[in-house]
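Hello Y.,

Per our agreement to keep a running log of every chain we model this quarter, I'm adding this entry. I've kept the format consistent with earlier entries: sequence first, then predicted structure.
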Amino acid sequence: MKVFVTGVCGQLGHDVLNELSARGHEGVGSDIHTVYSGVSDNSAVLSMPYVSLDITDAVAVKNVLAEINPDVVIHCAAWTAVDLAEDEENIPKVRAINADGTRNIAEACKELDCKMIYISTDYVFDGQGTVPWKPDCKDYAPLSVYGKTKLEGEFAVSSILDKYFIVRIAWVFGTNGKNFIKTMLNVGKKYDTVRVVSDQIGTPTYTYDLSRLLIDMAETEKYGYYHATNEGGYISWYDFTCEIFRQAGYKTNVIPVTTEEYGLSKAARPFNSRLDKSKLIENGFEPLPIWKDALARYLKEIED
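Predicted structure for the entry above:
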């Protein structure tokens, strides 16, 4: 199986390429950078083919994918700076990447009759209530530019293709790039006390675990919408921080605060990021491991 992966300089794309290599599949990575600019570790990413590609360039996307002729495209590339996306001058670029770029990929996949896996987000919902969002729920009401443009990407994929997976994730962390865990570890070293939001509820997603699920999906024809985060129940960012510090051996005091008390964010954050993942089991996919276990493995990974 030949798989083309976008966004390999980010957290998820990096791990997807490594998983492809581990399973003996042929992987080709891409990102907008001229050369691969992710973490310099001993991963398989560094030995796999890399193509510089601007997904907002429809002609380039069509030509590159036609030349590679993949069986599957796993589309990880996205504008993910949620607050910066709210700046007026950035909105056209965010839409060009998340919506138009995704459409370009989908149209190229249509011409090649190949599968597409699109990585989406809980931000396509309004984040209200306490009931977990089901993958086939159509009650879309994104509160941010990021959420709106990712939803536009979903619509592009589902309207153009039949052979697609739309996989919504949340609270992502991986070795290749910035994330909440790295931020908290840095803050915890500098300060005796940190304030963390306690009224936003969800579950973390370790890219190493998610990448294995995505390849599982790519090997099937069980198309449709899915939700995928680690197991272990729903928690707040406060709960997550307490566990990060506990496992890391930090004595930093963590104070729970409301989103309103915390302030600072330009983009509205969802209070309810609970994602119902039962469809994974229903379709024969193995759920991701418990998030506490994922955190322990991740902390060991970034220590080595």
